Amino acid sequence: MSALPALSIRDLRKTYDNRVEALKGVSLDVQEGDFFALLGPNGAGKSTLIGVVSSLVNASGGRVEVFGVDIQKRRSQAMRLIGLVPQEINFNMFEKPLDICVNYAGFYGVPRAEAVQRAERELRAAQLWDKAQVMSRTLSGGMKRRLMIARAMMTEPRLLILDEPTAGVDIEIRRSMWKTLREVNARGSSVILTTHYLEEAESLCRNLAIIDHGRIIESGPMKQLLAKLDNEGFLFDIENELPAELPLIEGAQLSAIDAHTLELEMPRSKSLNAVFERLNQAGIVVRSMRNKANRLEELFVSLTGSGDKAA
Predict the structure, then answer these.
(1) Does any domain span residue 226?
(2) Domain named ABC transporter: which ranges (predicted)?
């Protein structure tokens, strides 16, 4: 690994012609090999930040380096280090996946023979090799998303940026794509992910930053930030019907969702053993339990003061 971060941003600013200040001095580091989440509510500045890093938007001030390469001074060199998977599907639907990948590599000067070998490798990794010679318009939504990732990987980018790669796909396809993205990261590419599925970020990413109103309001290791939550919630599935009166538990709050479901809110410092002991004393048998809500969503709402999920 290099000593340089995969992405280094210092005092990045962007003011549009309509005087909207989208970025207000953003500073951020993403380390080599990381799987990093960039989260924020709608209009927070995520798209502008990704646009500047991928050289699609001109910054008003500040500095961006990719593995030590300044994107303003050495744009071509920096862009060869980056793979971008935009939210919109933007390949030719009347081309075959193999041709899409090979032609994309050709734009970056990869010889055709080598590009064909890379295309087979990436399409196999994306579980699309059996579709390599069909028209892309016949692919399912999830396959098209995976093709976007395969195309971005044709240049063997050291930094892969994904802008809501699983938007609009069902949970089965989404989890299949999670597997693909983990494999991409395991192969050595640093990954930056924006997503409005917060459970996706919690499942995949080791570090994150939350941006709001053009500023980074929180950043750090995922586990460390989630540990800041003071309370946590659980849902208990109860074997028999709940009694009319629920037991009192000091420092915790119980409420009945329905006759067989119990909701618990309690401080993280409190032991669940005491809760189970009190429920047993009341004759309430817990059949199973699960977290009430995604923890990252709780953190996100508490920091941004918004009920809107990241987008």
Answers:
(1) no
(2) 7-238
Q: Say whether both 152 and 216 belong to one domain.
A: yes
Q: Which tokens hold the place of 44?
A: 């927070």
Token couple for 271: 């032991």
| Six token digits for residue 232 | 């946590």
Using CA atoms, how far apart are residues 166 and 153, in angstroms rounded to an integer?
17
Q: Please check whether residues 18 and 83 belong to one and the same domain.
A: yes
For 129-155, write each residue's pLDDT tens digit.
Answer: 999 999 999 999 889 999 999 999 999
Amino acid, res. 78:
A
CA–CA dist 18, 50 (Å, integer): 20
Amino acid type, 249: I
240 and 210 in one domain? no
- The verdict on 44 and 166 lying in the same domain is yes
- Domain span at 244: 231-304
Q: What dihedral angle (degrees, nearest 10) is formed by the CA atoms of 30, 32, 33, 39? A: 10
Query: Do 241 and 299 contact (CB within 8 A), yes or no?
Result: no
End-to-end CA distance of the chain: 32
Query: What's the pTM?
Result: 0.77
Angstrom distances, CA of residue 275 to CA of 35, 36, 104, 246, 262 = 36, 36, 58, 12, 12
